[in-house]
Amino acid sequence: MAEGEAAAGKSLRDFDPQKKPKRNKFALACAILASMTSILLGYDIGVMSGAVIYIKRDLKISDVQIEILSGIMNIYSPIGSYIAGRTSDWIGRRYTIVLAGLIFFVGAILMGFSPNYAFLMFGRFVAGVGIGFAFLIAPVYTSEISPTLSRGFLTSLPEVFLNAGILIGYISNYTFSKLPLRLGWRLMLGIGAIPSIFLAVVVLAMPESPRWLVAKGRIGEARKVLNKISDSKEEAHLRLVDIKHQTGIPEDCNDEVVQLNNQVQVQGKGVWRELFLHPTPAVRHIFIASLGIHFFAQATGIDAVVLYSPRIFEKAGIKSDTYKLLATVAVGFVKTLSILLATFLLDGVGRRVLLLTSVGGLVLSLMTLGASLTVVDHSHVTWALGLSIAAVLSYVATFSIGSGPITWVYSSEIFPLRLRAQGVAIGAVVNRLTSGVISMTFLSLSNAITIGGAFFLFAGIAVCAWIFHYTLLPETRGKTLEEIEGSFGHFWRKPNAAKEVNGRNNFINQVKLSTNADNK
Domains (ranges, CATH) in the chain? Predict the structure, then answer.
C-alpha cells in the first residue's frame, strides 16, 4: 500500500496544480494518434465539397442526387457509431480504432473505382460505417487517457484533426481539379485510403484505455498505463481509486485480474435501461445535455457551409471553378487556425464561457451572411459580395473556436464510465443524423426560401442553442471524470438526494482517513 500511503491526504488536484500546466508527453502522444482518425471524416467532408462539381458533370446527375450523395455519409455513419459503442466495450478502445481505419480504407477504394452513381453510393455506405467508428471512439479514448487539467486540450484534438482533414480535402480538390474529368474526382475520393491504412497500423503502438481495463477487471494493466500517463505514481494511484469507485471494485483490491460482480453495469448491458427507462436525475440531465449539444452543433448549419461553400461563393459572385476552390481553401485555413486557438483556451477559459461566446458569434455571423446574400440576390453590389465572404469566414472561425471542439470534449467527459461508450455513441448518432438532414436538404431549402432565408433560419436555431447551453450546461473544467456527475441533476434532484451527489468524494475521504489511521 506504499502508493496509498504516499497519496494519503492528497487529491488529484495536488498533482495537477493550476500553476503548473505540465503536459504528460506520453498521454499527448496517445491522444494525437487516436485523434488522427478524425482526419478521415474531415477529409471526406472537405473533398466532397469540390468533388461534387465534377461528379455532377461526369455522371450527369441532378441537384437532389448531389444532396443525397453529399449527405448520405451522415446517415450511414450512425450505424458505425452504434456498432462501435458496443465493440469498444467488447474488444477495447484501441482495436476499435484499428477497425475504423480498415473499414474506411475499403470504402475509399470502392469510391475511387466507382463506374457509376449506384456503385459510388455503395462505397459511401462502407466509408460511412468506418467514419462512424472513428467519430465515436477517438474522443472516448482521448478523454479516458487524459489528465484532468489537460483533458480539454487533449479531447479537442479530434476536432483539430477533423479540421485538418477538411483543409487537406480542399487542397486535394484544387490539386486534382486540373486532371481529366473522369480521373480527377475519383482520385480526390480514392486517395483517402492512404491515411486510413496508416492510422490502422500506428494505433497499435498505443496502450489500452485504463478505464476500460479496470472495467474488465485487469487492474494491474490499468495501473501500468496510469503510471505512464500521470506525473507520479501517487497521482496514478488516486486516479485508479476514482475509477475503481465507479466500477464498484473495492479500493484495496490489487490483484492483477479480478472477477467483477457487476458485469452487467460495467460492460454496458444495462445502459439502455439506465439511460431511457430509469435514469437518475444526474444521468437524465447528462443525457439531455449530450443530445442537445450534438443537435445544435449541426443544426446551426456548419456542414452545409463546409459542403456547399463553392455554391455559397458562387451565389456571392465568384464564377470561376478555380477561384471557388481557392476560396474554400481559405475557409479550411481559417477553420484550422481557429480550432488550434481553441485547444489552448479550453482548459484556461473553460467550456461554458467559450461555448456561449462561440454560439453568440454564430448568431451574428449567420445574420450577417443571410442579410448579405439576400442583398446579392437582388443587386450585385461589391460591398455585399465582400461581406458575404467575410461572414462565411467569421462563421467557420466562431464555430471552430468553441461549438465544434467543445461538443466532443463536453459529451465525452460528462458520462459516467459505465455509460460512456454507448452514451457518446448516441450523441454521435444525433450529431450525424442532424448533419445528414441539413446536408441533404440545404440546396432544396435554399431554392424554397432563398439562400439568405436558409441562413436566417440557421441564425434562429443558433439563438435557441445559446439559451439551451446557458440553461443546462454546467462548467466541467478542472474536475475529474469521476466527480463531474455531481454537477448534474439539480433540475430534477429530490431535496434528500444530496447525499448521493457526494458519494464519490466521501469514498475518497474514507480511503484517506483509513490510510492515515494505518500509518499511525
Answer: 24-211+274-472 (1.20.1250.20)
